[in-house]
Amino acid sequence: MRRQPLGAFGLVVVVVLIAVAIFGSWVIPYNPISADPSAIRESPSIHHFFGTDQMGRDVFSRVVMGARLSVGVSFTVVAISAAISTVLGIIAGYYQRWPDYLLQRMGEFFSAFPPLVFLLLVVSVLHPSVKTLLIALTLPVALAGGSRVIRGAAISIKQSQYIEAARSVGASDARIIFFHILPNVMPLVIVGATTGLGSVILALAALGYLGLGVPPPTPDWGGDLSGQARTYFRSAPWLAIFPGLAIGLTVLSFNLLGDSLRDLLDPRLRSRGG
To answer: Are the beta carbons of 43 and 238 closer than 8 angstroms?
Structure first.
């Protein structure tokens, strides 16, 4: 914490966010999807900490429960993407030839589309749902960026002297991959996954803002910033302030944590800091 204060701050926020996502239903004062016509657009008060929206729903309850969707989807996407990109990247970097060629072409295909355009295309073709969001967010993350980074690291590690020494004593390809290459690329996987969480949450919020996220009235940070809520931002600014702060603070915390993990796990940066 002394060496990486910003990373420690990001870690604290991330831990609080995960706790809110898990135990949020126990602390919210109101049902986040129940409308109350008698409490429409009430300003923040002791009864409604973050005020109410245009339908009388408690904004604090919706922000808290929106964390469950953001954390659940982002962690699932990043976990699947990290597993796929690690497997493909190591196979392509170690064996090269046609696996490497195939991975490179897939990466170029996904890189040819701007990420938001690809997300809009997939979500527009398929019915908007959590499953659709998982598919749309996982493919670009796994194939366009992560796997190519792991591939480059695997090629570099493959040429190391200790890999040649392992081959000389009869180590199989599977043993070299699992006991030598995989442990050495794990820092890259961890850092990439941590920073990728912020990008996934931001993309999820963008889809919700465009009306292509989870169907209402499910609490969604991006969805709460779209639709009719946009017409009341001037008269009821808390409708935009609190969901926007939740998105910004979450993305910032994951990025700070990822940068700190990179400094701590990368031997070159660690020795430079010493």
So the answer is: yes
Kindly report, residue by residue over 28-40, the tens digit of the pLDDT: 889 998 888 888 8
Dist. CA 197–CA 71, nearest whole Å: 9
Strand ranges inside the chain, DSSP E: none
Q: With contact defined as beta carbons under 8 Å apart, do 12 and 56 qualify?
A: no
Query: CATH code at 202?
Result: 1.10.3720.10
Cβ-defined contacts of 119-124 (< 8 Å, 24+): 119/203, 119/206, 119/207, 119/212, 120/207, 120/210, 120/212, 123/207, 123/212, 124/212
Q: Which amino acid type is present at position 225?
A: L
Say whether pTM exceeds 0.85: no
Residue 37 domain flag: no
Residue listed under structure tokens 């910003």: 6
Nearest CA to 59 out of 29, 90, 37, 86 is that of 29
Q: Are 208 and 120 in contact (CB under 8 A)?
A: no
Residue 136 lies in a domain: yes
- Region for 169 from its dihedrals, namely left if φ exceeds 0, alpha if ψ lies in -120 to 50, beta otherwise: alpha
- How many residues comprise the chain? 274
Distance (Å, rounded) from C-alpha 246 to C-alpha 217? 18
Count of domains for the chain: 1
Rounded to a whole number of angstroms, the CA Rg of the chain reads 22
Render pLDDT for 6-57 as a digit per residue (tens, 0 to 9).
889 999 999 999 999 899 889 888 999 888 888 888 999 998 999 998 888 9
